[in-house]
Design a protein that fits this description.
5 helices, two-stranded antiparallel ribbon, six-stranded mixed sheet
């Protein structure tokens, strides 16, 4: 029977009624069954919202016009939806980590300048608008310039190229292999994320929650 130890103190043994052993072949199936409720809540609360999920990373997307009324409506709709998600997770013995939730509003510089300061909350955690967020290894900024992501990919590429030169005799072959394995793969991932999320770009602002 499991116990909990904190600062040298150990609890009494107790039964676990809701658990999946780590490494169990049932883990992935049970997770999919459990997480399927998430999309039903999103569809019910935000009919016009787009959502993407990769394992336990979920993104919610909503578009709105750059005015205060639309901004307030979108934030309120997002907050209501996330609160319903939080209550469902608590009911099903799950936990939403508010401290890891991020918010970003994407648009042109002119559109963003017309916005009021944006902040929201998830449970007891205050969430402020971010200028840059990381999505599955790809850095997205509020203007979609991809400048931070490009800088990171270039720094990583130069680092591995330098490492290859120092340690490998067949430099040309290593550089070719390195490009396809380390650099090209990141470029393809970035394009896939961009096209999936913003392929049908419209001249409106887009607010994204990462939960």
């Amino acid at each position: 029977m499991p116990k909990v130890g904190i600062d040298g103190s150990t609890s009494n043994p107790f039964d676990l009624c809701c658990v999946v052993p780590q490494g169990s072949c049932l883990g992935r199936i049970l997770f999919i069954i459990c997480a399927s409720k998430l999309f039903k809540i999103i569809e019910h609360e935000l009919p016009t919202c787009s959502s993407h999920c990769y394992a336990d990373d979920t993104q919610l997307y909503l578009s709105f016009k750059p005015d205060s009324t639309s901004q307030d409506q979108v934030l309120l709709a997002m907050e209501n939806c996330i609160e319903k998600i939080r209550k469902w997770m608590i009911h099903d013995k799950l936990l939403i980590n508010g401290s890891k939730t991020e918010l970003i509003v994407i648009g042109s510089k002119q559109q963003l300048s017309n916005l009021q300061p944006i902040s929201t909350s998830v449970g007891n955690s205050a969430i402020n608008n971010s200028f840059v967020v990381k999505n599955l290894g790809c850095w997205l900024d509020a203007n979609l310039s991809m400048s931070k992501h490009i800088t990171n990919v270039c720094n990583s590429a130069f680092f591995y190229l330098l490492l290859t030169e120092q340690r490998t005799a067949n430099v040309q072959m290593s550089r070719t292999n390195l490009f396809y394995s380390a650099i090209s793969s990141k470029q393809q991932l970035s394009l896939e994320i961009y096209n999936t999320s913003f392929g049908s770009w419209a001249p409106v602002l887009r607010v994204i929650y990462f939960i």
